[in-house]
Structure formats: C-alpha cells, structure tokens
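Input record (one chain):
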Amino acid sequence: MEGSQSPSLANFEPFLCILLTANEVNPDWRSTISAWLVDAGCLYVVACGPDSSLWDDSVDMVNVLAFLNQDIPDDRYVYTTFHEQLDEALFFAKFCASHDTVDIQNLLFLDIGQSGRQQALLEMFNATD
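The corresponding structure, as predicted from the sequence alone:
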C-alpha cells in the first residue's frame, strides 16, 4: 500500500516479481518501490495493469542508475516487461521469463491497489498453461 513500509526480502534473491497494478500511484512512491525491488535482488519484473509501462520504465531507470558510470553486470541486469491482461502476464512469467545468466527460483506477487486475492492469484498462476 502506498506510504507503507516495504517488507524485507532478505534471503529471497534472486527472484521474479509479478507486479500487478490497479490504480495510479505517486511517481516518487513508484520509484521507491522500484528501487526496493532492485535492491532486494529482483532480476525480472513482469508488470500488469494500468500504468504497467510506467512501472517497467521505473524499474529500468533504477537499474541503469545503479550502474551509471559502468556497464550493468550480467548477473545484476533486471529484465522487465509490461502486459495489459493478467492471463498474458501470468503466462509470460511462467513460461517465457528467464534470465540469461541467473537461475531464478523465487517468485513474488506484488499486488498494488488490491488486497485479499493472494490465493486466487496463486491458483491462477498454477493453472496457467
């Protein structure tokens, strides 16, 4: 939720994040959350929903700025995509998203703007084929 403390993701890296957006958010908060994801070891963001392209750009910018005067190391490069439809995003995350140099074993659902649908999202992801 906007304005709340981001939880620790210690010992969760590397991970893929399916970032679901439902509403517009403050650009500064979007940047803060993007930095939190990158700093925590997220190596792939699959954004879905309204403003998902803004989230895609925000994560890209954080990753570039972290290595401003040098090339981004292969094992720290964060891949991003954005999708309009949830089923498309889930399919992409499950079957297409992979990192060139790192084996990503962990998955984080980050649902911004809605609550109480964790179980439904997990079931939808598991049923995706």
